[in-house]
Write a structure and sequence with these properties.
16 helices, globular, 481 residues, binds FE3-S4 cluster, pyruvate-formate lyase- activating enzyme, 34% helix, five-stranded mixed beta barrel, alpha/beta, binds S-adenosyl-L-homocysteine, 3 domains, 22 strands, single chain, Rossmann fold, seven-stranded mixed sheet, OB fold (Dihydrolipoamide Acetyltransferase, E2P)
Length: 481
């Protein structure tokens, strides 16, 4: 993963790697926000490819435009609104064009979206994608359509995602949906609903299919993967009483991780995202046991101050967090960590901010994703706490956090120099067409001159000669497999 010290995160237009013959309608599908949205878009593309649509990368030729939206910060929502207004002219030129919003913003704003944004015809929440074909019948008949019902069961387990605009090397596999944690700043529990885990059999099947199709890296996805839980015989709802559930064999996240690692031994396994309060030591033990579980954990902490962690409703202290990561290092000595930090949460003082900086120095994160606090309507923090840190202080503290992470990344990158690393090639270097780009088990980006018949999807050994803050500069040593 490349360093991203930016307010907003990913955005991308998705086109299918393979088109379905016979489909004549065109879908322009653009995703914003977290990896989960990108993964959900693959489910949406799959449902619509069964209903006459192939994807296009040109909105001008689309019959249906869908934006899979993000609500995590105010700015993410602004980006979507701007994008929507950009489609006004298209809609004028082609009245039959349907424009829809999916995902978190659809769920948060519901009918308001249809009222506020006159050019939106369709609003669909994250648990309602199966109803898209029926909703499109409504829009085709000239009526607005909406389904924002959240589900306690929907995991789309049986839908085989259409892999979109990827590199054919790395794929996402969703294992949990929703989140029950209620971190006070976070809108996700409201937009994605209750937490539920996907049937492990369907997860393993999807991983095997990906391996057979040549994929070499799978990221297991969820808002909070560490609380993955599946009970022996069947879905949780099959058990009449809690006591019956307890008797059944439970599959926790670490067991699932081990099962996936064994099912596809030649594929690298990663996972995201974790919350430290749900992370178990067994996950690191599993990582130590299996070479193909990558030695990298994204472990958002948000703040280094215990007082702020309590206000954020994070269920761990700074000390417990440090202890967990130090113990993980004893089990997996070359493990790399990355963080998410929020600068300027309600009531944050200069002393709290210093605690964040000192925690970062203590952990020495490889990467970071850092944000200024953005108050979200309806969240516990919005109801109970004032957004009282002045904008300039937030901005300065964020800049200090970003600058420190830059220094730490440089220090961490230096530790990889002068050594050989196993690298999975995932594409061409953006700066130099004569070089491959890949990543190490620690998720460090590495570039090196192309050699012989090496290609994306190959595991190679690379000697790292030098580095920049975000990239290892290497030399090809040998082809592995
Ligand atoms: N488990 C989730 C995390 C949710 S959001 C996942 O799958 O990624 C990702 C990050 O956005 C959080 O870790 C947090 O650092 C940041 N974030 C969430 N709500 C925010 C808010 N209201 N203001 C600023 N940053 C926020
Ligand atoms: Fe949000 Fe906390 Fe869940 S950050 S996604 S409520 S773990």
């Amino acid at each position: 993963m490349e360093q991203k010290y930016i307010e907003d995160h990913m955005q991308g237009t998705a086109t299918a790697l393979k088109e379905k013959t016979g489909n004549i309608k065109k879908l322009f599908l653009e995703s914003y926000g977290c990896q989960m949205n990108f993964s959900d878009s693959e489910i949406v593309a799959s449902i619509l490819s069964e209903n006459g649509y192939n994807t296009t990368q040109f909105p001008e030729e689309a019959d249906l435009i869908l934006l899979n939206t993000c609500s995590i910060r105010e700015k993410a929502e602004q980006t979507v609104r701007q994008r929507l207004s950009g489609f006004k002219q298209l809609k004028k030129n082609k009245p039959s064009l349907t424009v829809g919003v999916l995902g978190c913003m659809a769920e948060r704003l519901k009918e308001k979206f249809l009222e506020q944004e006159k050019l939106v015809d369709l609003v669909v929440g994250p648990d309602a994608y199966r109803s898209l074909p029926q909703l499109l019948e409504e829009t085709e008949a000239g009526r607005d359509a909406i389904n924002v019902i959240l589900s306690k069961e929907e995991t789309y387990a049986d839908i085989s995602p259409v892999r979109l605009s990827g590199n054919g090397v790395s794929a996402f596999v969703t294992i949990t949906r929703g989140c029950d944690n209620m971190c006070s700043f976070c809108v996700v529990p409201f937009t994605r609903g209750r937490e539920r885990s996907r049937d492990p059999h369907s997860i393993l099947e999807e991983c095997r299919e990906l391996a057979a199709a040549g994929y070499r890296e799978i990221t297991l996805l969820g808002q909070n993967v560490d609380s993955y839980l599946w009970y022996g015989g069947g879905p949780k709802k099959d058990f009449a009483k809690a006591s019956e559930m307890q008797q059944a064999t439970a599959i926790h996240f670490h067991s699932l991780l081990g099962m996936v690692a064994e099912a596809v031994p030649e594929v690298w396994i990663r996972f995201a995202t974790s919350n430290p309060q749900d992370m178990r030591i067994e996950v690191f033990e599993m990582m130590a046991r299996h070479e193909n579980i990558c030695n990298y954990v994204h472990l958002p902490v948000q703040s280094g101050s215990n007082r702020i962690l309590t206000l954020m409703n994070r269920q761990h202290t700074r000390e417990e967090y440090i202890q967990l990561l130090k113990y993980a290092k004893t089990l997996v000595p070359d493990i790399a960590f990355s963080q998410d930090m929020i600068a300027g949460f309600s009531t944050e003082t200069e002393a709290d901010h210093q605690d964040t900086l000192s925690l970062m120095r203590e952990i020495e994160y490889d990467y970071g994703y850092m944000f200024a606090y953005s108050i979200r309507p309806g969240t516990p923090a919005h109801k109970k706490l004032e957004d009282d840190v002045p904008f300039d202080d937030k901005k300065r503290r964020l800049a200090e956090i970003i600058a420190l992470q830059g220094e730490l990344s440089r220090i961490r990158m230096q530790t990889y120099v002068g050594k050989k690393h196993k690298v999975l090639i995932d594409g061409e270097s953006k700066k130099n067409k004569n070089q491959w780009r890949g990543r190490t088990t620690q998720n460090a980006v590495c570039v090196f001159d192309k050699f012989d018949d090496t290609r994306p999807g190959d595991f190679v050994e690379v000697f790292v000669k030098d580095c920049t803050q975000g990239t290892l500069l290497g030399e090809f040593v040998r082809h592995l497999y």
